Amino acid sequence: MEDVLIIGLGCAGYTAAIYTARYKLKTLIVGQEEGGMGMTAAEVGNWPGDIEVKGPELMERMKAHAMSFDSVTLKVAYVEKIERVTLSSAAAPRYDFARGACPERRRRARKITRDDTAARIEGSSATVFKVTMSGGETAEAKTVIFAMGSSKRHLGIPGEDRLSGRGVTYCATCDAFFYKGKDVAVIGGGDSAVEGAAIAAQVARKVYLVHRRNEFKAEPYWVDRVKAKGNIIMVLERNAVEILGEKKVEALKLDQPFEGSDQIKVDGVFIEVGSNPATDLAKQLGCELDKRGFLSVKADQGTNVKGVFGAGDVTNASNFFAQFATAAGEGAVAANSVFNYLQGN
């Protein structure tokens, strides 16, 4: 029986694991992709202590930190199902307060008997959480932190799915290398799109940055960089309506002409139009979502379901400011809340 199950192998998940481990909580962290979306960040220039660091390097360091604790177990697996299981009071899991890492909390914990706390938290029965992973393996935990992040959003235009993997990709920073000396289009106006265009411009012959508005919502640092690149062509106030090509991408069709034509001849299309929160597992437990589909959390990162917390891009916390720093902060808060919950506070 784990004290806490963390689902998600990204910045929020790794940070939460570091904190739960320091609280001496038996921790299982599981996810399908190590590093999560952090692996797609070519350059991270706002992580405190590093003037510039590559996303994959930062994720590897976070993982190594989390795994330096004996109380942390990591599994790379797809979580298919999560459910609540009720145990009798005789089998109810109880947290051993003496393991807490903080001296102040240890002193306070000694004032609370294990039986009293079990009665306060559990009553006559206890609810734990059971997950089923790919391959049929299962695990149980007293608490859960959802840190699944998000997945890339699709445009839903003709040719997108058919040509996916044949010139259509959702990560310019990951795949730009394959288009050395070629012409590509990057679609979007946020940080990932503008950063992706700047990275692609280092290897591509031309980069068409297609955005439906006249101004970008990306960080000014990246906007200035793309404007300084001589091989980035701004295609503003236009929408991509179709991706053309037979066996591979050949052109991008627009809703109105650009430089006399509604088609731009390109070899690759990078779609960077945001992401959707990965909330399927949270919905299985009945967790509330906000109107945008993000996991609703309170100031302590708790959800409406007792014993369930959230952190990172999957939540509506930090004013939707999806950054490494905010994800790490939410992971730390969630871990602290798990510790307090297990104490009965």
Q: Kindly provide the name of the CATH class of the largest domain.
A: Alpha Beta
Please tally the β strands and state the result.
17
Strand content: 25-35%
Helix-strand sequence: EHEHEEHHEEEEHEHEHEEEEEEHEH
Largest sheet, strands/sense/barrel: 7 strands, mixed
Radius of gyration computed on alpha carbons:
23 Å
Protein model, in words:
This protein has about 350 residues and is of the alpha/beta class. The chain folds into 2 domains: about 220 residues, 3-Layer(bba) Sandwich (FAD/NAD(P)-binding domain), CATH 3.50.50; about 120 residues, FAD/NAD(P)-binding domain (3-Layer(bba) Sandwich), CATH 3.50.50.60. About 25% of the residues lie in helices and about 25% in strands. It is built from 9 helices and 17 strands. The strands form 4 sheets. Strands 1, 2, 3, 4, 5, 6 and 17 form a 7-stranded mixed β-sheet that branches. A 5-stranded parallel β-sheet has the order 8-15-9-10-11, with helices on one face. The chain has a 3-stranded antiparallel β-sheet with strand order 12-13-14, with no helix packed on it. A hairpin with a 6-residue loop joins β12 and β13. α1 runs parallel beside α2. GO terms for molecular function: oxidoreductase activity, acting on a sulfur group of donors, NAD(P) as acceptor. Keywords: Disulfide bond, FAD, Flavoprotein, Oxidoreductase, Redox-active center. Pfam families: Pyr_redox_2 (PF07992). This is FAD/NAD(P)-binding domain-containing protein. InterPro entries: FAD/NAD-bd_sf (IPR036188), FAD/NAD-binding_dom (IPR023753), Ferredoxin-NADP_redctase_2 (IPR050097), Pyr_nucl-diS_OxRdtase_2_AS (IPR008255).
